[in-house]
Amino acid sequence: MPNLRPMSKPINEKRPNIEPWRWHLDKPHEVARFAAVLRQTDRAYECKTSGHSMGDTLPAGSKLRFRCTSNDPHVGDVVVFLAGQSDWIAHRVVFAGRHGRSQPYLITRGDAGLLSDQPILRSSVLGIVEARLIDGQWERVEAQKRTRRAARLARSGHFWAMRTALWIHIRVAVLFAAASARTWRRVRAVRVLPGTNPIK
């Protein structure tokens, strides 16, 4: 399979001057058009990850294979999506909108994180991760591992708050994501909940 290197940027690497909660506001129509072109190819691509947001599911330096397809992602799928003009992120879908204002959006989260990502447009998804390379063999990406109760409660609370914000309006969700990230950065130096990685 060809290596995916159109931007010379590995998945999960973020530009330091772009806040994660501003992803979908960075020329979303151009992002959607580029993603649509790749999805029409129905081809599999291989690339390497960087960062630790997916924990043991996709450790930094993992080689993964994802397929650009028009299939709609489901909750539990790990998807590769475009964040802004040049960032490629691989995170797990935790919510797929079906009705009303939430219908065009997905909510994702890294397996090692506490906070849900801000909602992303379905049209920004490039494809669904099929497998990762382990000891020379391609293996399916495993389901998220069960974590400690404190981490589960924190994730659940933030997730439902994000869903509610999205139900009100996407910009409310963006503001909530921004406030959550700022608050977490302030408290992570004081205390880190067991079973989680702090946001960097």
Task: State the main characteristics.
3 helices; alpha+beta; 8 strands; 24% strand; 200 residues; 8-stranded antiparallel β-sheet; disordered N terminus
Mean pLDDT: 79
How widely separated are the two ends?
32 Å
Major sheet size, sense and barrel closure: 8 strands, antiparallel
The poorly predicted ranges are 1-25
| Protein structure class | alpha+beta
* Total strand segments: 8
Helix content: 25-40%
Number of helices: 3
Q: H/E order of the elements?
A: HEEEEEEEEHH
What shape does the CA trace take?
globular
Whole-angstrom Rg: 16 Å
Strand content: 15-25%
Q: Describe it for me?
A:
The protein is α+β, with helices and mostly antiparallel strands. It is built from 3 helices and 8 strands; from the N terminus they run αββββββββαα. It has helices at 28-39, 149-168, 170-187; strands at 44-48, 63-67, 78-83, 87-96, 105-109, 120-121, 125-134, 137-140. Strands 1, 2, 3, 4, 5, 6, 7 and 8 form an 8-stranded antiparallel sheet that branches. Helix 2 (149-168) packs antiparallel against helix 3. It is globular, with a radius of gyration of 16 Å. 33% of the residues are buried. The model is unreliable at 1-25 (pLDDT under 50).
